[in-house]
């Protein structure tokens, strides 16, 4: 009982610290562009947003680690925050309360429509600028093809997931299983389409028998971050689809070019041996220069296939 209370206290502490830090960033929305300090001095601190993780304690450690590392690398003050909504991130980039953010390719495609952001770096995974979406079934299931999932209950990772919704749905169109612009229910059946709140929640529905398959990223099954060894032993990959463009680090377009170059160089220093472990915890791969428009081109085509606009 004591251990449980300690664990909860640590979780609550991490959550409160994150909330306080993010409240400070939101306050910057009302101060405007270059972040002046009291007395008129320009605030030269870099403010960077990461993607949220289901483990707040782990994110607290990553945030602290990045702040220390980038301060050591660039000799600059750095504030790393973890917002809970992608829309807030792009608003922060546009109004100057954020300088950079780590986002999915789809978030970049959708969030950049109003301008004000520039894609600077991309995530390289196993030497590639893409990963795959997978359909996962229980290890003892008899399914051998996605065709056999017709009329069966399935769970997508979330309505906003690239690899857990957009790509597998577009693949149904690409393979002729679904009409152009068709809905998932037309293949799986009305009442058979569920959405999780992330990869793990979709897998949990599969493991407890609520659905027959779940759509997630390949690294959910092939990595060690999301599932336990025991969970993965009860599952197998039925099919793969993609490619899925990797995540991006974007910066606000209003940041002076020399500042963007300095921040870009500092982030790329995380590829050096002494920082690799931290880099992988924060960004899950090497950081390389990227052409943002080219990187997300395939997603535009997929959105058209399922009848959605970016």
Summed up, what is this model?
The protein is 43% helix and 19% strand. The protein is of the alpha/beta class and 310 residues long. The protein is globular.
Order of helices and strands: HEHEHEHEEEHHEHEHHEEHHEHH
Structural class assignment: alpha/beta
The total of helices stands at 13
Distance linking N and C termini: 49 Å
Principal-axis shape equals: globular
Strand order within the widest beta sheet: 2-1-3-10-4-11
Low-pLDDT segments, ≥5 res: 1-9, 11-41
Instruction: Report mean pLDDT, rounded to a whole number.
Output: 86
Fraction in beta strands: 15-25%
User: How much helical structure, as a percent, in the residues?
Assistant: 40-55%
Task: Name a few traits of the molecule.
single chain, 310 residues, alpha/beta, 6-stranded mixed beta sheet, 5-stranded mixed beta sheet, 13 helices, 43% helix, globular, disordered N terminus
Overview of this protein structure:
With 310 residues, the chain is α/β, with parallel strands linked by helices. 43% of the residues lie in helices and 19% in strands. The protein has helices spanning 2-28, 56-74, 86-95, 105-111, 162-174, 185-188, 199-207, 218-222, 229-233, 257-268, 276-283, 292-295, 297-305, and strands spanning 46-49, 78-81, 100-103, 117-124, 130-138, 154-156, 193-195, 213-217, 235-245, 248-252, 286-289. Strands 2-1-3-10-4-11 form a 6-stranded mixed beta sheet, sandwiched between helices. A 5-stranded mixed beta sheet has the order 7-6-8-5-9. Helix 2 packs across helix 11 (276-283) and helix 5 crosses helix 13 (297-305). The longest helix has 27 residues, at 2-28. It is globular, with a radius of gyration of 21 Å.
